[in-house]
Design a protein that fits this description.
By secondary structure, the chain is of the alpha+beta class. Helix content is 31%, strand content 34%. Strands 1, 2, 3, 4, 5, 6, 7, 8 and 9 form a 9-stranded antiparallel β-sheet that branches. The chain is elongated and about 55 Å long. It starts with 7 loop residues before the first helix and ends with a strand.
Length: 205
């Protein structure tokens, strides 16, 4: 398999995982054909059973990784119950993967309001119309709810629903994986120290 993107030396010399993630995400944005910010989100329910689904990363910085959802959905209730989650990015065209896990915080109202206002109008109406993860009697019921909220918010701004906001995963570990020949892959894991800094460790593939 051919090499793509950063060299092994660049990969191992980074001391700051968020900078490295930003470089990898920029590469994915250039090369991935669809949704370079798509990520598998893993949560745990009240019985301790894991759950996983794809979501879209909507922001990241040194504070953590942000996505938005209906808090009454399965993932919303599971995160609110456990306040822990994990993510896995896989960029197949670049043969790279990033895994992270940590505690979860709720983003501030101003941050959530700003992102909600940036969404297409139809998506904002959909956030009101969809009782996410709950039983739906038929497609017509969803279309009817969309029509009702479209009429309700026909004029003016659409406010953010009280049950819709964002989560920020504050990672305790971030692992970077890069495909290498003969399955002798590069794996570097960053672990957060108590002082907020990061320790870097190379792992066997």
């Amino acid at each position: 398999m051919g090499e793509t993107g950063l060299t092994s030396g660049d990969f191992t010399e980074s001391n700051e995982p968020f900078r490295l993630f930003g470089e990898w995400l920029a590469d994915a944005t250039e090369h991935e054909p669809n949704d370079p910010n798509a990520v598998a989100l893993a949560t745990v329910d009240e019985d301790g059973l894991p759950n996983v689904r794809m979501v879209l990363l909507k922001g990241f910085d040194a504070a953590g990784f942000v996505f938005y959802t209906n808090f009454e959905s399965a993932k919303g209730s599971e995160i609110l119950g456990q306040r822990k989650a994990a993510m896995c990015f896989h960029w197949k065209s670049l043969r790279r993967q990033v895994r992270l896990r940590g505690i979860v915080e709720i983003v501030g109202d101003a941050e959530a309001d700003a992102y909600f206002a940036s969404r297409p109008r139809g998506s904002r109406i959909g956030a009101w119309a969809s009782k996410q993860s709950r039983p739906l009697e038929g497609r017509f019921a969803l279309e009817r709810a969309v029509a009702e909220y479209a009429a309700r918010f026909a004029i003016g701004e659409i406010p953010r629903p009280p049950y819709w906001s964002g989560f920020r995963i504050v990672p305790k570990t971030i692992e970077f994986w890069h495909d290498r020949p003969f399955r002798l892959h590069d794996r570097i894991v960053f672990s957060r120290r108590d002082d907020g800094g990061w320790d870097r460790t190379r792992l066997f593939p």
